[in-house]
Amino acid sequence: MKAILIAGAFSLLGTLIGTRFAISVLTKKGYGQLIRDDGPTSHHTKRGTPTMGGLVIIIAVVLGYFIAKLATQTGPSASALLLLFLFVGLGAIGFLDDYIKIAKDRSLGLRSKAKMVGQVIIGLIFAFLAIGWHDDTGRTPITHAISFTRDFNGWKLPTALLIVWVLLMIAGTSNGVNLTDGLDGLATGASVMVFGAFVLINIWQSNQNCSTHPGIKCYEVRDPRDLAVVAAGLTGACFGFLWWNASPAKIFMGDTGSLSLGGAMAGFALMTRTELLLVVIGGLFVAITASVILQVGYFKISGGKRIFRMAPLQHHFELLGWEEITIVVRFWIISGLCVATGLGIFYAEWVSGV
């Protein structure tokens, strides 16, 4: 528990203090956000706001984790290292995307194919290592089974399909957070809640782990306590960043932050055996992603008609006349309800023993 508190505290301080410094540096270099001309006109006032703030989140989380390891004199686990690799790797792709937007004055950044290739490479390395890194008991960070609150019996996938499943989860969550990051503080605040949920899930799984508390209801999860340390770091870092990212935002996380945070969510779901439960816990991200899929699909099959005034969903409400802060707070409430529901389902499964 000491490591969890240290990682959370240092990561929070890292972004709370580090983001202020980053705003100053990025402003001097002119690394400001480009705004799409086809977006809500109210967003034009945000042009030039410093971006790439996700870099501060990444540094704060990594430093917070290793400071916690040094303070408690414990070594890093395989699961935590793999999760940090996924987190930092996808953040690097996002950083390239953000840098190209600024350096080449191109609002779309990396070409979609290049971004996809980068995500696939990081995802493949993560998947191969996660299914082949055995501990003394033969457990690996992720298994071949599909999971909800724990692995489903009889739902094991062959290795090829498992890798495809991992890639789909990583792509889905990273792009889901990316789509949500369209209003000041929206994605950051929702991420705080999701990672906070994984802190609780990992602590619970550690206290009821099969390696220390064998029994019918125990969890076959590798390194849950160390995963809780990473989750605490992410929760603290996002919370500290929110101080500067809340409306009116002084800095944006950019793709550097959104891709890395989304990838971390997928990593946690895979390693805690809560893959399908993530659909509930991250319900806000799912709804916003679904709005884009529905909008594009309906536009194509209907010959140009739209379901929403604009997608992603948050921009639809902007065009209806809602204030940005109203949308953000109400979406935070929805995210909180989704997280609470997910945690309730997780605990209910334990109580029922089903």
Task: Explain what this protein looks like in three dimensions.
- The chain is mainly α and 354 residues long.
- It has one domain (2-352).
- The protein has twelve helices and two strands, in the order ααααββαααααααα.
- A two-stranded antiparallel ribbon has the order 1-2.
- A hairpin with a 3-residue loop joins strand 1 and strand 2.
- It is globular and about 55 Å long.
Please render the helix and strand layout as text.
Layout: H1 2-29, H2 54-72, H3 78-103, H4 112-132, E1 145-147, E2 151-156, H5 159-180, H6 186-207, H7 224-245, H8 254-271, H9 278-281, H10 283-301, H11 313-319, H12 324-352
Antiparallel strand pairs: 1-2
Keywords:
354 residues; mainly alpha; 2 strands
Distance between the termini: 29 Å
Strand content: under 5%
Tally of domains: 1
Structural class: mainly alpha
Biggest sheet record: 2 strands, antiparallel
The coarse overall form would be: globular
Task: Identify the strand order in the major beta sheet.
Answer: 1-2
Uncertain runs are none
Number of helical regions: 12
Give the radius of gyration: 20 Å
Fraction of residues in helix: 55-70%
Report the average pLDDT across residues.
90
Number of strands: 2
Order of helices and strands: HHHHEEHHHHHHHH
